[in-house]
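Worked Example 4.2. Consider the chain below.
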Amino acid sequence: ADDVTREPFDQLFWSDVAALPNGPNRKQHRWGKKVMKTQSKYQFLEVLYDERRNVTSLFLDRAMQLSDVGEHMYHEFMAHVPLLTTNAPPRDVLVIGAGDGGVSLRVLMHPSVRRVIQVELD
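Applying the procedure from the previous section yields the following structure tokens:
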């Protein structure tokens, strides 16, 4: 799906740097490379790799959803807090959204859980 173009968004991945060794007004690549980009029926999806920081990030409709640095903070709270605040230990869990699977993975860490069903938009 390389034919999907979001020019204003694409420009966010480049920054003008006046003091580069090669002279003023050179472009410095900020993210490294786009691993994937596609337009689904519901949303524009991009996976970007930041070579400088060795970080991969997921963007949906131009908004960053998560990255592999700090993803645990998002998944831990989304999974453990609800499961630890129920009256009875949960056995069957429905996860709506959270398509990267991190929430479901953490739900399965609970010994009482016997089944997880995850439903995702696309």
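Residues 5-9, 11-20 have pLDDT under 50 and may be disordered. The chain is about 20% helix and 35% strand. Compare this with Example 4.1 before moving on.
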